[in-house]
């Protein structure tokens, strides 16, 4: 992409080049300077003053900086978000939506492996919850309490790892897995979308009977009043989950009808 006004090619624009681009237009030069660089700066500054180009013609890094300035809320710094900006075009919506929703989307990793001896959680950015046979359910409960305190949480992306191909979930750990799904299912109504990514894909197939049904019901609870996206499972398992979702939705509607009649 080339802007005729600036005669610069922005393809492959790096952060260093972007800083140089801005510096060349803001450097203070002497009016009587005859150097080649000073003359170039004056020409660039003159062209910038009369330039007329589309926002989408700016380099991606510069657009991202503008998105962060206009779509980030920070009441302590006095920053206000202007979501109406995203209505300008589909491309701006696609690029800026993630910036606007950054503080209301949680990406969490849930690893359920026997190989871990010491569990741990990290609160820098993503939440990484590790459960193993040596710990209590404290971390599961604590994660649920933390999520409940996030007033603007609208989306959750949960990467669920039920062990490796050779080491699947121990039977005595299933209740903790159900507790984790229950915590997400009982979050406030402003949570609209939950995405679950299962690894390995055949992990649920290793369970049978009541154990399998209990896990599927806990997953299905997330889809009763939220948008549920499931990835990694085979088609037959997904069909079973959506059948549980249908039954739970019907049961919920029946309870609401009974309460209204009373």
- Share of helix, binned: 40-55%
CA-based gyration radius: 26 Å
What string, H for helix and E for strand, traces the elements in order? Answer: EEHHHHEEHEHEHEH
| Cα shape | elongated
Helix tally equals 8
Strand content: 5-15%
The tally of beta strands, per DSSP, is 7
Going by helix content, strand content and strand pairing, the class is: alpha/beta
Sheet with most strands:
5 strands, parallel
Distance between the termini: 66 Å
Low-confidence stretches: 1-10, 114-141
Biggest sheet: strand arrangement: 4-3-5-6-7
* Count of domains: 3
| Mean pLDDT across residues | 67
What can you tell me about this protein's structure?
The strands form 2 sheets. This protein has a 5-stranded parallel sheet, with helices on one face. Helix 3 (60-71) crosses helix 4 (90-100), helix 5 packs parallel to helix 6 and helix 6 (174-185) packs parallel to helix 7. The chain contains 8 helices and 7 strands, in the order E-E-H-H-H-H-E-E-H-E-H-E-H-E-H. With 262 residues, it is an alpha/beta fold. It folds into 3 domains: 15-52, no CATH class; 59-100, no CATH class; 102-261, no CATH class. The model is unreliable at 1-10 and 114-141 (pLDDT under 50). The protein is 42% helix and 14% strand. A hairpin with a 4-residue loop joins strand 1 (2-3) and strand 2.
